[in-house]
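Provenance

Sequences were taken from public entries as deposited. Structures were produced by running a predictor on each sequence independently, with no templates supplied. The record for 2-keto-3-deoxy-L-rhamnonate aldolase RhmA from Muricoccus pecuniae is shown for reference.
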Amino acid sequence: MTELFRARLARGERLFALAACVLRTPEVVLVARSAGFDLLLIDLEHTPITIGEAGNLAVAARTAGFPALIRVGGPHHPDLARALDVGAEGVVVPHVDTPEEAARIVDLCRFAPVGRRSLPAPLPQFGYRMPPAPRFMAEAEAATVIIPMIESCAGLEAAEAIAATPGLDALMVGANDLAADLGLPGRLDHPEVQAAFARVAAAARAHGLRFAVIGVPEPLLGTLGFGLGASLVVATNDINLLVDGGTALAERLKALVA
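Predicted structure for 2-keto-3-deoxy-L-rhamnonate aldolase RhmA:
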């Protein structure tokens, strides 16, 4: 049996994600796997992807034995638990500013006694043949990953309290939004931004959570990611992968005939 993604995250395995932002067909799952990524992050926050399309990708990922998380629109997004119902192994939730919002996420996404998630219809996690409720609740609980994102001054000030919320697996820094909210847009190399990353990483570590980052350029991953103990790195997205790879190829080809 394939090891649970949650277990790999919990033991601190270094995991690299490709975000699906534009490609909405199952091919992106195999592209991510073949390229050597460890998981797919299906993004509903900044993209035209619908919950139905996200579900198709999540089911394709399960069929391929490849982990997939869904990033919803925020802590009050209507599709929080639905992201799990359609097949994702977990949710990434942006703009979490308070421990109350973190608790709300856990309440909606975890079954009792930790939360109050509603018992769903047949799930793709079980091949749509549901076992007895106690078994599927226990197995779903063991596999479900919940990662709130810290990307504002308010979230930064509450990082320790958010990390103390039972039922979380990691804290993720949204690099660009956090820098912008600190009044330093695009200045990820600024000491104040670096101190903010370090504070979130320390809060996660103090409460037994993993540290994750998204939006950190490759040259800064040592400082803002690995140097702070990041286990999960969202490395790039599908469209950047296409554009960056295409640009590099075009430049090489043009250099041959220059």
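The mean pLDDT is 96.
The CA atoms of residues 90 and 115 lie 15 Å apart.
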